[in-house]
Automatic annotation (TrEMBL):
Oligomer status and interactors: Homodimer.
Residues that span the membrane, as ranges: 12-34
EC number: 3.2.1.21
UniProt protein name: beta-glucosidase
Top-level class of the enzyme under EC nomenclature: hydrolase
Length: 570
């Protein structure tokens, strides 16, 4: 896209978005969702050493799917079978394999001091196995990226596995389904891969995340099978895969501990995702807890608590085995040695969180074709006044993250928590959403709830990471859902990046380290607060003669100059 064309996208986009916003301010219906106390803006700052970061993942941004000797991953396979919306693939994606210096420049511009990205296993070992050969160009690529970050004073946080399993490992060993009852080859292969990364990059990388969201790999990849590697076995596949992933994680943790920690002094954890489950009625309280235990506890309980699955998961699955006439539970068991080696294998607790569900108790009708969803004996829904993002599953419920952080503190012995993803999607639409007020609101409201967890509830939240630095390949939705702080034009062969208004907002947030009393930024946020909560000050505090609408509108006039100023610099 030429400079002129891009300018006109920005201008039309800005204008149309602002116009729509003004219209929507006038017609937004009264919304009973706002709770004056729960949802009030907290002023103050995060602790001094708080980590602000943004994240991406290899398959979602790198492209260069077959350069040099890179092997195919299970996501290359799935995409090439045309299984993604609009037949999109990650073949080129954001082309970060070539454009990484631009990505780093965007972070620098935002004042970010940390970057969470993932390494593609088949870019390092084309078959997944070191003995079959190393792709030196791939190794060099990550060296260049890491060096570029360090030169720009940005600390790398590296995810070892963000879903792009080497296809050969799936074909040879069944991937994470590989013989789950004993020590299996997949644990060793993951360990070898981890060791190689520590050896090559550990002098500069001090934060390692073994797996990103094993819940997704297990359930969507090996249970339902709509995600790669498309294994459909919803009664048991997810339990076997999760079992192997937990053991592989423990292996990689101990390798760091035994062979590298003393010399390199870094930290190793895992990133788990969880939607907060809030009970629909007081009678659903146990069901909501069960929901969270089956979701987060499935992985967090073994790793951060005692080496074993949550009690409620074991008893529920044992009862189901009886009902189903099975001699053993579909939930596998760890041996005593395995429990010992799993327990305590996280130096920090990585958390990805996006949304909340309302949980109802659905206990206990025996089910003909059981699966992970029915195993929980719960129903899930959403309150009618929860706003929605572009992704079908993403409802905006800011207070959910505070509850979840509090749960983690209580349940897992007050660990240091790194929020490794949080963010909101827009639709891919024309004109592009550059004035992304909904995303600004999302980050404003969610980070304020994180600050409440930190400063009011004494949760040890150490980091907040925005998903995502860039619009990118959103898995089965392809390029139709945009999570970026920066817009990427996927029709432009050069994949030009453009800052959205949210990147300006996020930069201010980082610079202010929260919402300090009296700062211009906090004033802006105060003006936006009711608008972001889809309500007006008058509805919350009583009739104020329309001042609230004016203050919401006023905040738009602050936002627009910010946007224009930034687009001139960029
Ligand atoms: C996470 N769901 O994935 C991932 O870590 C990212 O790669 C991804 O782009 C981001 O969240 C946004 O989706 C999820 O269907 C994928 O509930 C799907 C779901 C949740 C998280």
């Amino acid at each position: 896209m030429s400079a002129t064309a891009s300018d006109s996208i920005m201008e039309t986009g800005t204008f149309v978005n602002c116009f729509l916003l003004v219209i929507s301010l006038v017609i937004i219906p009264v919304n009973g969702g706002y709770d004056k106390e729960r949802d009030a803006l907290l002023k103050g700052t995060f602790p001094q050493d708080f980590i602000w970061s943004s994240a991406t993942a290899a398959y979602q941004i790198e492209g260069a799917w077959n350069v040099s000797d890179k092997g195919p991953s299970v996501w290359d396979t799935l995409a090439h079978q045309g299984r993604v919306y609009n037949q999109d693939t990650g073949d080129v994606a954001c082309d970060s394999y070539h454009k990484y210096p631009e990505d780093v420049a965007l972070m620098k511009q935002m004042g970010l001091k940390y970057y969470r990205f993932s390494i593609s296993w088949p870019r390092i070992f084309p078959t997944g196995e070191q003995q079959d050969g190393v792709n030196q160009d791939g190794v060099d690529y990550y060296n260049r990226l890491i060096d570029e970050l360090i030169v720009n004073d940005i600390q790398p946080m590296v995810t070892l596995f963000h879903w792009d399993l080497p296809q050969v490992l799936q074909d040879r060993y069944g991937g994470f389904l590989n013989n789950h009852t004993n020590t299996t080859v997949i644990h060793d292969l993951f360990g070898d891969y981890a060791r190689f990364l520590y050896q090559n990059y550990g002098d500069r990388v001090k934060y390692w995340i073994t797996f990103n969201e094993p819940w997704i790999t297990a359930w969507l990849g090996y249970g339902i099978g709509n995600f790669a590697p498309q294994h459909n076995e919803p009664a048991e596949g997810q339990y076997k895969a999760a079992h192997n992933i937990i053991l592989s994680h423990a292996k990689a943790y101990h390798i760091y501990d035994d062979e590298f920690r003393a010399a390199q002094g870094g930290q190793v954890g895992i990133t788990l995702n969880c939607d907060w489950g809030t009970p629909k009625t007081p009678a659903d309280a146990d069901a909501a807890l069960r929901y969270v235990q089956f979701f987060l506890g499935w992985f967090a309980h073994p790793i951060y608590k005692n080496g074993d699955y949550p009690e409620v998961m074991k008893t529920t699955m044992a009862r189901k085995a009886q009902e189903e006439g099975r001699t053993t539970s579909r939930l596998p068991e760890f041996t005593p040695e395995q429990k010992l080696s799993i327990s305590g294998t996280g130096d920090f607790f990585g958390l990805n969180h996006y949304t909340t569900v309302e949980v109802t108790d659905a206990c206990c009708t025996p089910i003909e074709n059981p699966n992970y969803d029915t195993d929980k004996d719960v129903g899930t829904g959403h309150a009618p006044d929860w706003p929605r993002a572009a992704s079908s599953w993403l409802y905006v419920v800011p207070w959910g993250i505070r509850n979840l952080l509090g749960f983690i503190k209580e349940e897992y012995g007050d660990p240091e928590i790194y929020v490794t993803e949080n963010g909101r999607s827009d639709h891919d639409q024309d004109p592009a959403i550059m004035m992304d007020m909904e995303r600004i609101c999302y980050y404003m409201m969610y980070t304020n709830e994180v600050m409440k967890a930190s400063n009011m509830d004494n949760v040890k939240v150490k980091a907040y990471t925005a998903w995502s630095l860039l619009d990118n390949f959103e898995w089965l939705s392809g390029y139709s859902e945009r999570f970026g702080l920066h817009y990427v034009d996927f029709n432009d062969p050069t994949r030009t990046r453009y800052p959205k208004a949210s990147s300006v907002f996020f930069k201010q947030l980082v610079r202010n380290n929260g919402y300090p009393e009296g700062s211009e930024f906090t004033k802006y946020v105060e003006n936006m607060w009711y608008f972001c909560h889809n309500t007006t000050e008058a509805e919350v505090n009583g009739y104020t003669g329309g001042a609230s609408q004016i203050s919401s509108l006023f905040s738009l006039f602050l936002a627009i100059p910010m946007m224009i100023a930034y687009s001139l610099i960029a």
